[in-house]
Write a structure and sequence with these properties.
Elements: E1 2-3, E2 12-15, E3 18-22, E4 29-30, H1 39-42, H2 46-55, H3 61-82, H4 87-106, H5 112-125, E5 143-144, E6 147-148
Antiparallel strand pairs: 1-4, 2-3, 5-6
């Protein structure tokens, strides 16, 4: 699937309140179109973000989750790069990161499949939740990133 790769406010021309053109196709390519949804957090907020999401009918929850990943990745590397010399832009990227994280928390039901897999893994290994409310809460002993340490539904571990 084709993507633009650099949809940003500076690459959009608006006439009479409507999008008239998209510029700068220098980073276009074939790949994950979710990267073009990053403007949901970098350009839009509040009602405009809601309207943007409503119009993007081809984007399913998985694509929005990947878009949050793209937005968070870019925001975090930009904060590190800019924080010493350009605190204003770094603060803008920090705002983006905070809004992406807030959006992920608001759509926490998307995380339920991973939590269910962890519960199944723990049940199959006969384990209990480690220190509820303390460090590591929400994780099951025996499960590790990318797979189950036991014979659970993602059997035998591995990486994603």
């Amino acid at each position: 699937m084709w993507f633009h790769g650099d949809i940003a406010g500076g690459n959009l021309l608006v006439r009479d309140g409507k999008l008239a053109a998209v510029l700068d196709f220098g980073t276009s390519g074939v790949g994950d179109p979710a990267c073009d949804l990053v403007i949901a957090w970098t350009l839009f907020c509040g009602e405009s973000r809601t309207a943007f999401r409503r119009t993007m009918t081809s984007a399913d929850p998985a694509m929005w989750a990947r878009a949050r990943g793209w937005a968070l990745w870019k925001a975090l590397i930009s904060i590190v790069e800019l924080r010493a010399d350009r605190p204003g832009p770094a603060a803008e990227h920090a705002r983006v990161a905070a809004e992406v994280i807030a959006d992920a928390r608001a759509t926490a039901s998307l995380w339920e499949p991973a939590a269910a897999a962890e519960r199944a893994c723990a049940q199959s290994a006969g384990l209990r939740r480690a220190r509820p409310g303390g460090p590591g809460s929400g994780r099951w002993p025996g499960c590790r990133r990318g797979g189950c340490g036991g014979s659970g539904p993602r059997g035998g571990g591995g990486s994603r």
